[in-house]
Amino acid sequence: MNAFRRPLMSHLNTRDLVIDIPDRPDAYPLGLTIEPGQVWGVLGPNGAGKTTLLHTLAGLRDARRGSVCLDVQPLTTLPRRQLSQQLGLVFQDRQDGFPATVLETALIGRHPWLSPWQMESADDVAMAERSLEALDVLHLKDRLVSTLSGGERQRVAIATLMTQAPHTWLLDEPTNHLDLHHQVAVMKLLTERAKAGNAIFMCLHDLNLAALWCDNILLMFPDGEACWGPADRMLVPNALERLYNQDLETVEVDGAPFFVPKRS
Amino acid sequence: MIRPLTLPLLLLGLASVLSMMLSVGIGSVALSPSEVLAVFVGQSPDMHQTLVLELRLPRTLAAFATGGLLAVAGALMQVLLRNPLADPYVLGLSGGAAVGALFAMLAGFGGFLISGSAFAGALLSTLMVFGLAHGTGSWTPTRLLLTGVVVAAGWGAVITLMLAISPARELPGMLYWLMGDVSYARTPWPGLLLLLLVCLALVPLGRGLNVLARGPLQAAALGVSVRPLEWLVYILASLLTAAAVTMAGSIGFVGLVVPHMLRLVLGNDQRLILPASAFAGGTLLVLADALARVVIAPEQLPVGVITALLGVPTFLYLLYRSR
Predict the structure, then answer these.
(1) The CATH number of the domain where A89 resides is what?
(2) How many domains does chain A contain in total?
(3) Which positions in chain B touch A55 (Cβ < 8 Å)?
(4) What distances in angstroms separate CA A58 from CA A44, A70, B307, one per listed residue?
(5) What is the pTM of this model?
(6) Is residue A138 situated within a structural domain?
(7) CA–CA separation, A260 vs A248, rounded Å?
(8) Closest residue of chain B to A104, computed from CA coordinates
(9) DSSP state of B56
(10) What mean pLDDT, rounded, does chain B reach?
(11) So what's the pLDDT on residue A1?
(12) Which residues of B touch A (CB under 8 A)?
């Protein structure tokens, strides 16, 4: 059983989805289709609702209106366990109540795949170790997560999602706390997963990482407006300047646009 | 999580049996281990038979059941509240039970009615805390914890009031109940049965509890039905605590110290911690009760005093050592 290469394909889509942010007027309804093989980047200023959108897409929050479906089935009608085999989420902030080692943390990802009576098998451990290896944290596997640096914890969280091996990967700022090399390594890993047939959907704060690695972009404006589509059509200076309320300078590096904030 | 689970459990099981052998052998008439064994194969004087089978064994088993119930309840509360320092009484349950028991004593009821009244008080307190913490529908661990602490303080005031207005001749019995005393146990069997059933019921829930300990959102994202599981844990922990308090009064520190010590030594896999708590909690209380019987013999100490006197320094030492 190799869950990394399951043929199971299902795509996440939303119909007239209005996310529910308390005390906020309705946002523009979203009709997204997240296809296997795509890498989506969600851009927007602080408080635009990126995290709320991710949680709604993962079925952890109710939408104000509209629906989120896996293929044609609304998330609300899917059993939680079945849903977590299809869809996984890396959270922006994590709480650790009890001390746990890195390997134990990654192994938690196998939970949706094991019956209540099953213990983790050697296969599950091997899978967790492969994920930790892919994120370059295998050497830390016996360390307590609470003793790691922010960037190392972030990589352990992504390794946990990789061990969960869902079809659709939702990630809330996966490059948070990562150094430059590991930012690139993580983006590379995610695009490789997309090539293997997974769907990737992540919130980002770094325009240039989005420009380099994402093929689809969703812009969430502070006033609730939104637009989405292929990256080259979305990442235009006018839209981005309005998005962040910040003047930008655009240069071209190796054929890709590179955005630099203007000083004044 | 991948450590073998069987070895620690076997060792703890062995410790349980040894502690019980010791406990039935100790007392006004001391019996050697071989004499104790002779009783169980039916080859010993009648006096030994009566002493062990009718007096010491039921009390020892009651101590084991009480300790096991409290420790498992504590371990469950710690997962539910995601706080390694929660204990089975944190939600005001022992206060409710104590008020029930003291009320029965004041009214002049005996034996069974005291237990029944304690059980009713424990359940009342549980429902009250849960109802109040639930409020408009969103209960968080912090809110549950705060509600429990405040309700417990309220019970504390009622207990003080009852002690203040009680006739002097009732006071010693009341104080013994408040400090916890296994000699109140009428029969060990319901407690032991409950402990066994709950431990078995927890086997398939263990991994889900491990995931739940990571926080409700993470658990939901990994396929755990968070709300039903939290309800179940809450009900089970309350039931276990109510049963323990009903058997032997409010014995402190077992439910806090035992699971916590086990976590420091064995890690945080609930599949190991929960059954290990049953064995270790039982063993601890059997030994504490044996000590309570002999320290100032022929007088007896309330076992709650012993668990507190042993538990506090041990706990502080472990905490100090673990950084």
Answers:
(1) 3.40.50.300
(2) 1
(3) 217
(4) 19, 10, 47
(5) 0.89
(6) no
(7) 6
(8) B1
(9) I
(10) 86
(11) 42
(12) 1-2, 82-84, 203-205, 207-208, 210-211, 213-215, 217-218, 220-225, 263, 267-269, 271
Q: Which carries the bigger pLDDT value, residue A32 or residue B29?
A: A32
CA distances from A138 to A123, A143, A246 (A): 16, 10, 40
- Number of neighbours of residue B171 by Cβ within 10 angstroms: 12
Q: Which residues from A are below 8 Å from B221, CB to CB?
A: 58, 60, 84, 88-89, 91
Distance of CA A16 to the CA centre of its chain: 21
pLDDT at B208 over 90: yes
Per-residue pLDDT at B1 exceeds 50 = no
Per residue in B113-158, pLDDT (tens digit) is 888 888 889 888 888 888 887 766 566 778 888 888 899 999 999 9
By three-state DSSP, how is residue A188 classified? helix
Range of the domain at A63: 8-94+165-261
Q: Is B199 exposed, middle or buried (0-12, 13-18, 19+ CB in 10 A)?
A: middle
Between the alpha carbon of residue B178 and those of residues A222, B96, B173, B206, B250, the distances in Å are 59, 12, 9, 33, 6
Domains and CATH numbers, chain B: 56-321 (1.10.3470.10)
A132 and chain B: CB distance < 8 Å anywhere?
A: no
Q: Give the CB-side neighbour count of residue A115, counting CA atoms within 13 A.
A: 2
pLDDT tens per residue across span B146-196 = 888 899 999 999 999 999 988 888 888 888 888 888 877 778 898 999 999
Contact A116 B217 (CB under 8 A): no
> Which ipTM value was assigned to this complex?
0.89
- β partners of residue A43: A219
Task: For chain A, list residues with pLDDT below 70.
Answer: 1-9, 96
What are the start-end ranges of the H helices in chain A? Answer: 50-57, 80-86, 102-107, 122-134, 150-164, 180-195, 207-213, 231-234, 237-244
Give the nearest chain B residue to A110 (CA atoms): B222
Indicate whether A31 belongs to any domain. Answer: yes
Q: What part of A 26-85 touches B (C-beta under 8 Å)?
A: 55, 58, 60, 80-85
Has residue A107 been placed in a domain?
Answer: no
Flag whether A213 is in a domain: yes
What is the tens place of the pLDDT at every residue in A50-86? 999 999 999 999 999 999 999 888 998 999 999 999 9
Q: Which residues pair with A251 in a beta bridge?
A: A258
